[in-house]
Design brief:
With 668 residues, this protein is mainly β. It is built from 9 helices and 34 strands. It is 12% helix and 50% strand. The radius of gyration is 25 Å and the shape is globular.
């Protein structure tokens, strides 16, 4: 890329300024650390809240140090089973926690880990009996309650092709509204509405739920919209979760909340009905029922389901024609038995039926309209080892994942996980750990190591996988492997560096010289990142990233480069200003570099930067009063050598893509 003198000077000044400033807003920074460490940049461009909802849910429903068991503590990122055991042992030996700072006195817990988890834990002063819980849940309903309201508006400043050609029926505004009413950890009511750009109604998607928790043996009851998280996700899981990333261990083990109220914007992959979970001593029982409509493309001849689009767009005549054209009914139960700190076992069964049959497009595609799923999942602890896994049967084949994890709770840990997802196993509601997006047609062995040394924290993983049968992207069987190594070091208390190298070796279907063939692609990614803080006013983050790949046999090579600098300024406690500028150059979309962007509460964007250009954004957050915060974002992508940006109805005539976002958050 040809940088002007002005641009180069700007980068130098921003890099040099890292010696002058520091950070504020610890919760926001903790969320960003989770994003950086646990979420590898995906290859899908998104502008949504789903992944951020996982993190935000932890801040809204903090884990109580005085009541949480080992499984509950492991829901917090960066806490493994050994760390959870140390916290519980301290509680058993010395009584309930009176301050979060007591964590620093636990031998074997690193200061870095404790600092990361503080925003997600709480200590409730009062511990009422179950009878008091029952008596007080409906009395004084408004006392000790919390109201959380969020309203968001986003608008592109450039007209897209769908609006120019009048293909989109609605306005270009993207609207989001969410209302939550919570009473301690006992009662919650939620209502959410969303409208995508080009849709007509402000409540084109509506979601609601009523949640009751901790009533004697009733652990939770949800009426309305919810999702389910059981075992390792092979039979039932929410539609999103952590993937392979810089943290080599935490994402490889799923720790579910079982029944979770739904407040996201994915319009097609959730349950609507009722679910109940009860607990008595070591026994747990769950039951659930759902009937929900979803988008589907229907064959006009035999009325079968051809496909199930998940984008949730209803802007054009064809998109609206597939809106809620089919429905699914689901009913199931789960039985569980737990010996705290020793062993747990769960059995799950559910039946799924559709009003129309699926029309398969290949030999092992889903077919029919009625499906039964059985799952057995387990977990056991032995000294410093944790063994866990799941087996799921869909009446045709068994998918499985089994893992062994070792940890000493502070300096060293490793995990080995073996997954086997047969080619004829199909499941719409599972989300297992692996390379592919589906729990189907994959065998893999994953190994991860986390090691705290004198030079910093080392994370390393190596994943080997193969797809024994052809897949959606590849017409023939394929295989591959990848490894990542990361070194995170703190040269000074306020200065952190991250060095990451990732290597991928995969067989892919590629169009080369107008011929589609299976080729082996070897891709390397190099990343250097720093985070700098001094005092409590400004925080800086910078990144340099380079990737290259080549296709064997044909000798095709590509490369890409990205440089960005981010600065956060908090001149007064009620005001935060965040700015990022990125310069990029890649040979094509195939060598694109993806970057996550946050800054607006509840929004996580993933952009593919390719070609040659720059992207920058500015976020301003201002607390009008303690309970009300305004957020504003302006973002811009500029590619000087392009005449159009995007494709299809999303295409922009020109080389500038910019948008504004305005949000208000109210907490009472």
């Amino acid at each position: 890329m040809k940088f002007s003198t002005k641009k180069l000077f700007l980068i130098i000044v921003m890099l040099m300024s890292c010696q002058l400033y520091s950070q504020s807003d610890s919760t926001s920074n903790s969320e960003e650390m989770i994003i950086d460490d646990l979420l590898d940049e995906s290859s899908d461009e998104t502008e949504n809240s789903e992944l951020m909802d996982v993190i935000e849910n932890l801040t809204l429903n903090k884990i109580d140090l005085n009541t949480a068991d080992a499984a509950g503590l492991q829901k917090i990122p960066f806490i493994d089973f050994k760390t959870a055991q140390k916290i519980i042992l301290h509680r058993n030996n010395y009584g309930r926690f009176f301050s979060k700072n007591e964590l620093y006195s636990i031998e074997g817990l690193s200061k870095e880990t404790i600092n990361k988890i503080l925003p997600f834990i709480i200590i409730n002063e009062d511990l009422p009996t179950p009878q008091q819980n029952d008596a007080n849940i409906f009395s004084n309903l408004y006392s000790n309650s919390e109201v959380i309201y969020r309203s968001r508006m986003m608008n592109d400043l450039q007209k897209r092709e769908g609006f120019i050609d009048n293909k989109f029926a609605g306005s270009p505004l993207k609207l989001y509204n969410r209302f939550l009413w919570k009473k301690e950890n006992k009662f919650q009511f939620g209502l959410l509405t969303e409208k995508d750009a080009g849709e007509t109604s402000i409540n084109e998607f509506t979601s609601f739920h009523l949640l009751l928790k901790n009533l004697w043996i009733l652990k939770s009851l949800v009426i309305g919209d919810y999702h389910l998280q059981f075992g390792q996700g092979l039979a039932l899981w929410s539609p999103y979760g952590y993937s392979k990333g810089v943290d080599a261990i935490f994402p490889a083990k799923k720790v579910g909340s079982e029944i979770v109220s739904y407040s996201s914007t994915n319009e097609n992959n959730f349950f609507r009905g009722a679910a109940i979970e009860s607990e008595w001593k070591q026994l747990k029982f769950s039951a659930f029922f759902s009937k929900n409509f979803f988008d589907a493309s229907i064959d006009s001849i035999n009325s079968s389901i051809i496909s199930t689009p998940l984008d949730g767009y209803h802007r054009t005549v064809s998109e609206f024609a597939r809106r809620k054209t089919s429905n699914e009914s689901v009913a199931g139960i789960k039985l569980g038995y737990t010996l705290p700190q020793k062993f747990s076992l769960g059995f799950l069964y559910y039946h799924s039926s559709f009003d129309k049959a699926f029309q398969p497009s290949s030999l092992y595609d889903r077919t029919g309209s009625n499906f039964n799923y059985y799952s057995l999942y387990y977990e056991t602890y032995f000294s410093s080892f944790n063994i866990f896994g799941e087996f799921s049967f869909d009446s045709k084949s068994v998918a499985s994942i089994n893992s062994i994890q070792f940890s000493n709770g502070k300096d060293f840990g490793f995990i080995i996980s073996i997954r086997n997802y047969p080619r004829n196993y199909t499941n719409l509601h599972g989300l297992g750990f692996g390379e592919g997006n589906n729990i189907q047609n994959e065998f893999g062995i994953y190994s991860g190591i986390k090691w705290r040394t004198s030079i910093g924290l080392i994370n390393f993983y190596f994943d080997q996988f193969k797809f024994p049968y052809r897949s959606y992207l590849n017409p023939l069987p394929s295989d591959g492997n990848e490894f990542l190594i990361n070194l995170t070091s703190k040269l000074f208390t306020s200065f952190e560096t991250k060095l990451t190298y990732k290597f991928e070796n995969k067989e892919l279907s590629s169009d080369f010289e107008n011929i589609n063939r299976m080729l082996r692609r070897k891709r390397q990614n190099y990343r250097f990142e720093f985070n700098k803080s001094v005092g409590n006013k400004i925080y800086l983050k910078g990144r340099f990233e380079y990737n290259n790949f080549n296709l064997e046999k044909v000798g095709a090579k590509e490369k890409g480069i990205l440089i960005f600098q981010e600065i956060k300024i908090s001149p007064i406690p009620s005001f935060n200003l965040i700015g990022r500028i990125a310069f990029f150059k890649t040979d094509s979309f195939s060598s694109a570099i993806y970057e996550y962007e946050s800054g607006i509460p509840g929004v996580l964007s993933n952009f593919a930067l390719y070609g040659e250009g720059m992207r920058w954004y500015l976020v301003a957050k201002y607390a009008l009063v303690h309970q009300v915060e305004l957020s504003f974002k302006y973002s811009e992508t500029y590619k000087p050598n392009e005449k159009t940006l995007g494709t299809g109805y999303s295409m922009i005539n020109g080389n500038l893509d910019n948008s504004v976002l305005l949000q208000i958050d109210v907490e009472l």
